[in-house]
Write a structure and sequence with these properties.
Keywords: Membrane, Transmembrane, Transmembrane helix. By secondary structure, the chain is of the alpha+beta class. The chain is about 35% helix and about 30% strand. The protein has helices at about 1-20, 25-35, 45-50, 80-90, 100-110, 195-220; strands spanning about 35-45, 55-65, 70-75, 110-115, 120-130, 135-145, 145-155, 160-170, 175-180.
Length: about 220
């Protein structure tokens, strides 16, 4: 019990230490002048996704200049490259980045209608980047004629942080897609709000206090 409490306290402290700092002045330059890299993992089932057994690991590059577009490195057997590109872009290439007006309307109204597709607000959430750091984003469901995607956006830049969905091919094969922004992407600097930092600090202090109390009482009352 004591070891568990101490381990939990250390974990909470490490969580605080892993929250990155904001360098928002650099983000717009990255978005405007370069490609945003995403890691794309494709699985043949959600069970294999949970186990980390992927079929293919690709990189997706999103750019906005001179016009929005994505390019892929890598491929997967059974899905032609052009089809794969279209699947990732669904319902529109514009879903990779929302405007600040869209973000504000989404958080205020809970739903926004785009050109033939809909984004529904699901609240705020925390996502762990591949390098272990945490970012806060807004959870959404993107709905369109042929299906839906679960996704998360960075509220400060409007960039897509991650999305998850599955497709079924004409041959009956199921593919599960998990797309996440690379750890060095412009949203990697998003930090948790001060209120949440305070809660985490209190939680860490409470766990440490409980561990100390448990050690004290263990010396007083030992069950043999």
């Amino acid at each position: 019990m004591v070891r568990l409490l101490i381990a939990t306290a250390l974990l909470a402290s490490l969580l605080l230490a892993t929250i990155p700092q904001v360098h928002a002045d650099n983000y717009q330059n990255i978005i405007n002048n370069g490609n945003i890299a995403y890691d794309l993992l494709i699985y043949d089932s959600y069970d294999n996704m949970a186990a980390g057994n992927y079929l293919s690991n690709l990189t997706v590059f999103y750019k906005e200049s001179p016009f929005p577009d994505i390019t892929l490195t890598g491929s997967i057997l059974g899905i032609p490259q052009e089809d794969l590109k279209s699947i990732i872009e669904m319902p529109s290439i514009s879903h990779f980045r929302l405007s600040q007006q869209n973000i504000s309307a989404l958080m205020k109204n809970g739903r926004i209608e785009m050109n033939g597709w809909t984004i529904s607000y699901g609240g705020k959430g925390i996502f762990q980047l591949s390098d272990g750091r945490f970012v806060e984003g807004i959870d959404v469901t993107i709905s369109f004629a042929s299906g839906s995607k679960s996704a998360m956006y960075d509220p400060s830049t409007g960039l897509l942080i991650m999305e998850n969905f599955y497709i079924s091919s004409q041959q009956g094969n199921v593919y599960v897609f998990f797309l996440e922004i690379s750890s060095y992407g412009p949203v990697s600097g998003t930090k948790l709000p001060v209120e949440k930092l305070t809660i985490l600090e209190l939680f860490s202090f409470l766990i440490i206090a409980l561990a100390a109390y448990s050690i004290f009482n263990r010396n007083k009352y030992r069950v043999l």
